[in-house]
Amino acid sequence: MTLAEILTEISQYECRLIEITGGEPLIQKNVHLLIRDLCDRGYEVLLETAGHMDISTIDVRVKRIIDFKCPSSGESGKVLWDNINHLKPSDEVKFVVGCKEDLIWAAKIIKEHELTNICPVIFSPVFGVMDNQMLAEWILDSRMPVRMQIQLHKQIWDPAAKGR
What we know:
The protein has 5 helices and 6 strands. The protein is α/β, with parallel strands linked by helices. The chain has one domain: TIM Barrel (Alpha-Beta Barrel), CATH 3.20.20.
């Protein structure tokens, strides 16, 4: 789709909140143009990134959500840690956890970088792998000032569904 087609599609909905996500949106050639156009049109824009690309060039009007990849993902070695230096209080950091080792790793990263003093921190269970209740209990027991989030769209629609 062209930028004009995307903007036309978006304008058909009465929602003023747009989240750009899916894979790694920062590798898309025109993502910065799309972000600028959406912000200029008065949309509240969220961008969810995998955390291995520089976030410092993202329009300052955007709420950035960095998904720091935990070890069980096999992607934790790709994290660009310098992104922490560019976080704003309005941004969020998310850890998608699949096992207890991920929880321990995430807790270490949060403490080491004092992430909860910078912006909100979210733990989300790997869908179908990490038990929601187990994660909630671990968060409560740890007394860490983090929130839990589940992939609501996978609760509403078929987890394999695309679009809409």
